[in-house]
Design goal:
By secondary structure, the protein is of the alpha/beta class. Helix 10 (331-343) links the parallel strand 16 and strand 17. It is globular, with a radius of gyration of 24 Å.
């Protein structure tokens, strides 16, 4: 029903544009002398486009577009700069990302002392008893030693600490936070989680998966004012990276604020908001027809992450022979949630990292399809990192979208082989294999777990050069893809993954004027230089939301 409505909308727009003398329409804005990659395979290149309101109504050669110039038309000569459709990031943690911008920055802390010193400096400048959260640390940067509460207790005092490892599946809590949560040596095991303990039974401060919530649930709920502050910081950062639409995969109570901001026209970026899958009964996709904000996406989990040893594999980890990871949800419950959500016309996406987790969710999707009947449902798997070879072809067979994060490949590539061995990495981040199997591949960042830069994501997918510089020819190089394929994953395919292909994702007549002007042509430069390309300007709905006019 939703798709039919969208098709009718597009048809009406087309009729309106073609039923009158198109040549007599005068544009509000003309972008000319441009090097435009449209994303439209039938007409991939253009020199100019004419924009009326928030919509492109003509695109083609500079001469063809010139006739739409009127007395009040703004004309911008971009001096042959490269333009792409606005990037769509299909996996963002919006509130978490916004809060991370306002909290201690640990993502690039490369040593133990740097990690400690940053926390100490931040703690020294906050209010008494204020929580220190987010962080997004990566212990592999300083050799793999997990931090403990003792590292930071003397610097944080009574300020409770609950800072995430970058993957979001492990936190470090200090003694103050553990005390608030009532966690001590006598605290028992947590189902689908782990309280890491010293040999004497005392907690180290590391909490994995479901155990994290013993502490996280004690953090005071953000006020709506605080949420709006975080969202404002987040959207400013995202549009500076050329991102024009996002899929917020865990609203964390942010949808109410997003809806209020949308009503007040304070949203700068387009948002598809997800809710926890288990709450399917309370969700109705009431905002599906708006351009700026919609819901109806239900997000579930199977397992955790590779770096925290909580990704679920068929065989044990190479460095822990008794450890196969874990499921963080009961599989029968997961099936019931998916089946019910799907029956109620809600879109379902599920986080799966390990090969056992991915096989389980593919099996579940297949069962639900058989029981609920064929329709255009667009099931998604978030991450789809480590796949059994026999499961790769099933994505296309079942019409399951692979929503993946190329930056993770060049980050995990520094250490993944130590955890899962040489054989399993051959089908890890299997971009090329999935495309060869005719899978719809979409890209995203997982921000703030990774930088929200689609440019860096394209670089990662095309080169697979790890961040430590040790794989100049690419990590698992047979899984490299080309620039056009990577861009499609961030634009056209990404729009398809949210049922938005009729209004965005490509630069065509009748679609939203969401586009990005870049400093270099991604097709003409050396692949290893793509990471150095920067965003000059970002336009959403024909309005410049980032960049300066003088930047050419």
């Amino acid at each position: 029903m939703i798709l039919i409505k969208r098709l009718i909308f597009t048809f009406v727009i087309t009729i309106l544009l073609t039923s009158c003398e198109t040549d007599s329409i005068k544009a509000d804005l003309i972008i000319t002398n441009a090097n435009i990659w449209t994303g439209n395979s039938d007409s991939p290149k253009a020199e100019a486009m004419a924009i009326k309101g928030d919509t492109i109504f003509a695109i083609g050669s500079a001469i063809d577009i010139q006739k739409f110039q009127g007395q009040s038309t703004e004309v911008i000569d971009v001096q042959n700069k490269f333009i792409t459709p606005g990037f769509i990031d299909t996996h963002v943690h919006l509130l978490m990302g916004g809060n991370s911008l306002l909290s201690v920055q640990l993502r690039d802390a490369k040593t133990k002392s740097e990690f400690i010193n940053r926390i100490a400096a931040f703690a020294n400048n906050i209010k008494p008893n204020q929580w220190i959260v987010e962080g997004n640390w990566d212990h592999t940067l300083w050799g793999g030693e997990l931090p403990t509460k003792e590292w930071i207790d003397k610097f944080t005092g009574e300020n409770p600490v609950a800072i995430y490892r970058m993957d979001g599946h492990m936190i470090l809590a200090n003694s103050a936070a553990l005390k608030i949560a009532g966690i001590d040596k006598n605290t028992g095991n947590v189902v689908n989680g782990e309280i890491v303990k010293n040999p004497d039974g005392t907690p180290t401060g590391i909490l994995k998966s479901e155990a994290m919530y013993l502490v996280l649930n004690k953090i005071p709920v953000l006020t709506n004012v605080q949420k709006e502050e975080a969202i404002n910081s987040a959207q400013d950062y995202l549009i500076s990276q050329g991102v024009t639409s996002i899929h917020d995969v865990d609203s964390l109570g942010g949808y109410e604020v997003l809806n209020t901001m949308n009503s007040a026209k304070k949203l700068k970026i387009r948002v598809y908001s997800a809710d926890p899958l288990k709450y399917w009964k309370s969700i109705s996709n009431t905002t599906n027809e708006t351009k700026w904000l919609k819901n109806g996406l239900m997000k579930g989990f199977v397992d955790g992450s590779l770096g925290s040893h909580t990704a679920a594999f068929n065989e044990p980890y190479s460095d822990k022979k008794e450890d196969k990871g874990l499921f963080i949800v009961d599989v029968d419950s997961l099936y019931q949630w998916i089946s019910n959500a799907d029956f109620n016309d809600l879109q379902v996406t599920v986080h799966a990292i390990g090969d056992r987790a991915n096989n389980t969710i593919l099996n579940t999707f297949e069962r639900v399809i058989e029981e609920n009947g064929n329709r255009d449902r667009r099931f998604r798997i978030e991450h789809a990192q480590h796949l059994a070879n026999n499961d790769i072809y099933r994505f296309s067979k079942l019409n399951v979208i692979a929503s993946m994060q190329p930056y993770h490949a060049i980050d995990d590539g520094r250490w993944a082989e130590e955890l899962i061995g040489k054989e399993r990495i051959k089908s890890t981040y299997a971009f090329k294999s999935l495309l060869d199997a005719n899978t719809t591949l979409v890209f995203s960042s997982d921000w703030p777990v990774a930088p929200a830069s689609p440019i860096y994501g394209v670089y990662a997918a095309v080169t697979r050069q790890t961040t430590d510089g040790k794989n100049p020819d690419g990590w698992v190089p047979e899984q490299k893809i080309n620039v056009a394929e990577a861009l499609m994953a961030y634009t056209k395919n990404a729009a398809y993954s949210s049922f938005d292909e009729n209004i965005k994702g490509t630069l065509e007549s009748g679609k939203l004027a969401d586009f990005v002007i870049l400093s270099e042509d991604l097709f003409s430069i050396e692949p290893n230089k793509i990471k150095d390309v920067h965003v000059l300007q970002t336009y959403i709905g024909g309005n410049k939301v980032f960049g300066e006019l003088c930047c050419y």
